[in-house]
Amino acid sequence: MNRLGAPIITVLHGPDTPPGMAGIERHHEVRYATAADLPARLAGADVLFVWDFTSTALAGAWSSARALRWVHVAGAGVDRVLFDDLVASDVVVTNSRGVFDQPMAEYVLGMVLMFAKDLHTTIRLQQRRAWRHRETTRLAGTHALVIGTGPIGRAIGRTLRAAGMSVGGLGRTARPADPDLGDIAAMPDLHAALAKADYVVLAAPMTVETAGMIDAAALAAMRPTGYLINVGRGRLVVQDALVEALRDGRIAGAALDVFADEPLPASSPLWDMPNMLVSPHMSGDVVGWRAALVDLFADNLARYTDGRPLRNVVDKRLGYPRDEPPTDATKGTHP
Question: How far, in Å, CA of 1 to CA of 87, rounded?
């Protein structure tokens, strides 16, 4: 806290800093830090706003975080800020759930339509001035498996159902007749669920349970006419196994917005595969997304300052948001 009792905030950023921070700066001491100077800027700070959600710098600066009470991540995934000492502490972690849900669902629908209507081939043929008539497929009567039952997965399920597809889900626990995702299978039933899907959509967080879940065996369980779409985390997919499956025609195609290494190296064979669509981690980044992230943080900061429950509190043991934040979310102490 500063001398007036207002929380001190450190903002961890990369090349750019969050916009629209003037209102927060009027009432709080705000320290801007890159990964290199985070240890010095974090000392004495109560709050860490992780604007660079790809950074893992907090683990290395943890010894300076003795006053830290709350970490807010400007993204849906929190795997890059979770490490053993933070998980074991009383520091609260929140994310930016809600900002990206519908934009990412629209991206997934776009990729499904791209494959169903063979639009990627149309673009390539136009570039070659080649007139080649083809037949395409309808969405009605096709089935999508959405892996990940959080808010993003649910928005995807609703959007695909509205387009005429049937939808099933896969999550930690099985349950029937979910209003957004239909029948939800449990993780141990992954391969059986994959075998029923025309489109497999990954919207799961990165956890010990989900890391590498789409490996060679999972890809072999998919239909040869099936498509894989990943908007979750790059390391959900074993990338070399995917390359082999695409190259051998064991699945029909894939659209990836996230990768194990980002930016995707120029040497990656994924760039040149005709049945592959690459986008640079932008599926949720619509006009105004940066301002929306800052607005969510500002709202949570007001809650923190007032002693009210925070939005989007994450269960640090699992990396998942809790359905309801605890009433004492702002009262933790850092050992």
Answer: 23
**Active-site residue, 106 included:** no
The active-site residue, picked from 31, 80, 154, 233, is 233
What percent of the chain stands above pLDDT 70? Answer: 94
Active site residue 27: no
pTM: 0.90
Residue 185: half-sphere exposure toward Cβ, Cα within 13 Å: 18
DSSP of 203-240: -----TTTTT-B-HHHHHHS-TT-EEEE-S-GGGB-HH
Residue tagged active-site, from 27, 158, 223, 281: 281
Residue 332 has pLDDT above 90, yes or no: no
Task: Say whether 281 is catalytic.
Answer: yes
Q: Which residue has the higher pLDDT, 225 or 328?
A: 225
| DSSP 8-state code for residue 165 | -
Active site residue: 66, 175, 209, 262, which one? 262
Using one digit for the tens of pLDDT, what is the confidence trace for 283-324? 999 999 999 999 999 999 999 999 999 999 999 987 666 543
Helix (H, G, I), strand (E, B) or coil at 178: strand
Q: Could you give the domains of the chain?
A: 9-99+287-331 (3.40.50.720), 101-278 (3.40.50.720)
- Whether 222 contacts 200, CB under 8 Å: yes
Convert the pLDDT of each residue in 268-286 to its tens digit: 999 999 999 999 999 999 9
Tokens of 29: 């001491």
Q: Which two tokens stand for residue 258?
A: 């996230």
